[in-house]
Amino acid sequence: MKKERFKQKYGPWALIAGGSQGIGEAFTRVLADKGINLVLVARRKPLLEKLSRDIEKTHGVHVRIISADLADSEVIKIIKEHTKDIEIGTLVYNAAIIPIGPFLDFDLEEHFNVININCRGPVTLVDYFGKLMKKRERGGIILVSSMAGFQGNPLTVHNCLW
Ligand SMILES: NC(=O)c1ccc[n+]([C@@H]2O[C@H](COP(=O)([O-])OP(=O)(O)OC[C@H]3O[C@@H](n4cnc5c(N)ncnc54)[C@H](OP(=O)(O)O)[C@@H]3O)[C@@H](O)[C@H]2O)c1
Fold first, then answer.
1. In Å, how far from its chain's centre is CA 7?
2. CATH superfamily ID and name for 3-161
């Protein structure tokens, strides 16, 4: 799709939850390449600051950063506050945790943390941004998962939680 058409359909801003490194950073760079402004959410602020400076310099798009924990049930309030004056045309939910080990060796709190990041987080963001996109009749949502979630593997029972 041509850059201008892509921007009309999926811009002018994209929010990438877990956008500071790895596959999330790759999404960040691809979208910046298409001229989309970015809101990057992750916990480690120095990494977000470094990447945002780099992207703004190399791609000439605007980048906002939100240093927050997606496992926090209040995170949506922070995200709403940082995005209330812009249109998010693309949502990428990329953050996930995959603890490896026997299920019963983890504390219950750790299981809930997996549910919060891998399940509650995407549902919350899709509910909020999806409804806004539906009203505008345009936009796109990408939920990053793993093939490992489709089958049973030893010591990876948490895979069924996303
Ligand atoms: N890597 C693989 O081989 C592979 C294979 C199949 C599927 N995947 C899927 O691809 C996605 C990304 O994997 P990856 O390997 O690129 O991950 P990664 O390198 O660990 O990056 C995860 C990103 O999410 C952020 N993040 C993690 N927990 C967070 C939290 N609680 N709150 C806010 N941000 C959080 C991280 O930043 P902070 O740590 O600073 O918060 C980082 O930006 C995941 O959904 C994974 O299941 C990966």
1. 19
2. NAD(P)-binding Rossmann-like Domain (3.40.50.720)
